[in-house]
Amino acid sequence: MGKKAVSRESYRTHCHVSMDEPGSAGELADCLAGHIRERVTDKDIILVCIGTDRSTGDSLGPLTGSKLLEKQLENFYIYGTLQHPVHAVNLEETLSIIAAEHPHAFIIAVDACLGYLQNVGKVTLNEGGVTPGAAMKKKLPMVGDMHINGIVNVSGMMEYFVLQNTRLYTIDTMASLIAESFLLADRSISKQHVLQEKEATTPPVTFHNDDDHARFLREASSAEQTDDKHKKSHHRYRRK
């Protein structure tokens, strides 16, 4: 459970989306993949999904983690699920395990938080770490190089009871949104890796003279026209 009011934090918010808006998962995924490409090279990427399944409002993290495990991501390691949640009791131990098994990893934390009424239902991608349990006055270590917050309910008074009375629909919808955005980002990152490997293994084309260059262009154009004819023929066949 993260800090209370997102708009009061000193960290930089890279993007924010609403769980009810179409295309939110794609928008969050683009932002997420872009920042990972900028900041992560040759590092394991760890998702620490923080929370507990004993409180509806605080179950956003572990529910997201379980949904992510089902998607079998290629570029992310998942810590924190409904079966094995990461919470106040085992957070420090989990971070020690991550440090031992994934040295110098890039960590993205996923956590629920409380905020202003007009922000409930929004998901934000933020720079820096999150402090779990701050809304409940718990002293826990900061987690993450980046973090995603889902604003699940209103802050202000009696946070424990507010979390207990948060709608499961809200949590499930936000968890699905976050999980889908990571899936899309994962595909984008994998595609980028394939292109980079292809560029690294493809020898450069060299031309000894202008005739060689002209011949190469003619052959490439001929191959492209042949491919176009094949596609048109295929489409005509499908229409029949």
UniProtKB/TrEMBL annotation:
Residues 196-240 are annotated as: Disordered. InterPro entries: Pept_HybD-like_dom_sf (IPR023430), YyaC (IPR009665). SUPFAM superfamilies: HybD-like (SSF53163). Pfam families: DUF1256. Residues 208-218 have a biased composition (Basic and acidic residues). Residues 231-240 have a biased composition (Basic residues). This is Putative sporulation protein YyaC. The lineage of its organism: Bacteria, Bacillati, Bacillota, Bacilli, Bacillales.
